[in-house]
Write a structure and sequence with these properties.
This protein has 384 residues and is of the alpha/beta class. The chain has eleven helices and 14 strands.
Length: 384
């Protein structure tokens, strides 16, 4: 099993940080990379020619490797919302098309489909979680119920951000293929912890940012675009999305044909290499540790927390282990959360957050067993 990597982060000994699902701290080495990149930006006349292209290729390659894709299938984007907006432009769903989403899913895979103006509106339908918390069965049941008039698109997170429920994407995709339904996956809480293989899954789009589980910065995300969609028009019109728009040429617009592959969907100002260097470095650490090993370690930590809470008879409940992700434990408190629950925990130097009426606990590689035991102890003190 992967060892605790706390020594690579600037976490004080008295801090129990269980909020990776909101944002993670940067590794110390990633901070150093960012500082060096900022120094480079402070003296651009010293920059080596072609360094930016090398950074684009590096980031694209490491992101692709984390999801089993080819580099040519990955676009450099700013956020999941940007990616979903790109997918919406590519798909061009006609008015009245039905889109299936999850109840209380995060905003990114939902709001784009609700925002169409006037007569071009889509019909957004919500899958409600079953009583046992099995999101996969809930989605499959919704699809079975709509076989006579299937939706045009299923746009969902692979792991529900508030309760930690995990969806079996392969089972869902098998049903979608039967009905020729498009599939968009917000893999924010999956990539980096759950082994992901788009070559096997074959979604239309799979999108993930770096600032949570990939230990990277804000403003950097990646989008897998299936080859069947790569001849589409991008969300933004940039020079580098075209074959020959080069400032050094005598004529500016030489060849306006789009470049091949998903690179045409790269965001504007992708050139901010400071954050790109940091994102690449952090993703390389994740790759080195291996997502399956990370997931195994985090499963051990959340299981330890669950056992500790049960042993102390702390009045909470949570999803069954068979339905939840290994790295997110969301506690339902039947008697209700104490007033300013998050603040009470912060005073004890324990960091976890309420999400939709539950306390969400999300460890990462910097957490150890002592953190878990202390969390349990502090929760027991506050709730009992």
């Amino acid at each position: 099993m992967l060892d605790c990597q706390r020594h690579l982060f600037a976490l004080p000994d008295d801090v129990c940080f269980f909020n990776a699902a909101a944002w993670s701290p940067l590794p110390l080495s990633a901070v150093e990379v960012g500082q060096q990149a900022m120094l480079t930006k402070s003296s651009p006349w010293d920059m080596v020619g072609g360094a930016d292209e090398k950074e684009f290729a590096r980031a694209r390659a490491i992101a692709a490797s984390l999801v089993g894709a080819s580099s040519e299938d990955i676009a450099l984007i700013s956020s999941v919302g940007y990616g979903v907006a790109t997918a919406a432009k590519i798909l061009g769903l006609p008015a009245g098309s039905r889109v299936l989403t999850l109840e209380n899913d995060h905003s990114s895979p939902v709001l784009e489909w609700l925002s169409r103006p006037g007569g071009s509106q889509l019909v957004v339908e919500v899958v409600h979680r079953g009583e046992n918390g099995d999101w996969t069965s809930a989605v499959l049941e919704a699809l079975a119920a709509s076989r006579s008039t299937p939706p045009a698109l299923v746009s969902i997170s692979s792991i529900h951000w508030s309760d930690g429920g995990m969806i079996d994407l392969e089972r869902v995709q098998a049903e979608l293929k039967k009905q020729d339904i498009k599939f968009l996956v917000d893999a924010t809480h999956g990539v980096g912890v759950i082994p992901t293989d788009v070559a096997q899954l074959d979604p239309d789009f799979l999108i993930f940012p770096t600032y949570k589980w990939l230990l990277g910065p804000y403003g950097r995300a990646f989008m897998y675009v299936a080859k069947r969609h790569q001849n589409s028009t991008p969300l933004e019109q940039t020079g580098y999305a075209r074959k020959r728009v080069v400032a050094e040429d005598d004529q500016h617009f030489t060849n306006l044909d789009y470049v091949e592959g998903a690179r045409r969907f790269d965001m504007g100002e992708r050139d901010f290499f400071v954050s790109l260097c940091v994102a690449s470095h952090s993703m390389e650490l994740i790759q080195q540790w291996r997502p399956d090993q990370i997931g195994q370690r985090l499963r051990m930590l959340t299981n330890r927390i669950e056992k500790g809470l049960n042993d102390l008879e702390v009045p909470v409940s949570m999803l069954s282990a068979e339905f939840r992700a290994p790295h997110i434990l969301s506690l339902n408190i039947p008697q209700g959360m104490p007033e300013d629950f998050e603040g009470l925990l912060k005073k004890r130097r324990v960091f976890a957050v309420p999400r939709l009426g539950r306390l969400r606990i999300s460890p990462h590689v910097y957490n150890n067993e002592d953190d878990c035991d202390r969390l349990v102890e502090e929760l027991a003190g506050v709730l009992k």
